[in-house]
Structure prediction request, 304 residues.
Amino acid sequence: MSADWTEQHIPDQHGRVAIVTGANTGLGFETARMLAARGATVVLAVRDVEKGRQAAARITGDVTVQALDLASLDSIRSAAADLRAAHPRIDLLINNAGVMYTPRQTTADGFELQFGTNHLGHFALTGLLLDRLLPVPGSRVVTVSSTGHRIRAAIHFDDLQWERSYSRSGAYGQAKLANLMFTYELQRRLAPHGTTLAVAAHPGMSDTELARNTPPVVRVAAGWLAPLLTQKAAMGALPTVRAATDPAVVGGQYYGPGNRWEIRGYPKPVASSPASHDRAVQQRLWTVSEQLTGVTFPISAAVG
Prediction:
């Protein structure tokens, strides 16, 4: 296979059901579009249903819209119930939606918004849907992280919700590090079942709406450099789509753009930070996430 993995490399997806969170715009939209073009039944799981419908109208294929607000556990439970009723099997759960560098806000359940949406929301959704994936050979959970998992990133168990002091970048780094640690621990727990893989991806620097909360001075500077540093959303989505569809993918891998700094380029396996591989922290984060969300998974912790 060519080193430059492109949309043309996506295998046939007919008969597969894919749920993509945050799919009304940007990376999620491009991910959904590519999967639908290859024959998948795609669900756009979005907070704004009207924008979701407008996005669905721009995609050719079997596409539906599901209301999902990852900043509300009630919404997540409701969406999971709807999805379970509509889909006896799920092949792909793509945890794409996210917020970045927001001013300090809390979710409906009192969680810091970036940690609550990017990590806890997807943790809960995955746990509530996993029994629809487990019986399906080749099913995958793909969670979108970021190079931001390396920036000021740690899991602050003493102040997970940033109540003592708040850093936009620090909170984002924690959330994106949590995405990776969740993936690695999930894969460890899935491995004995032999059917479902957990994989992570990141888009590099992509031109999407995600950066709308970046401080103005940074946005202005980035605007001048954007043509050199960023890539279109369709390219930024390729690591996610490869993680979801490439038959050569192995559970626990992390995909990102292939250039030296992982900013742009065609997708390939990349390395995550040493901190992301701390198994004790992964397990502690899992336990805390179950406690905070009230969601337990139908799989056991790995032994050894």
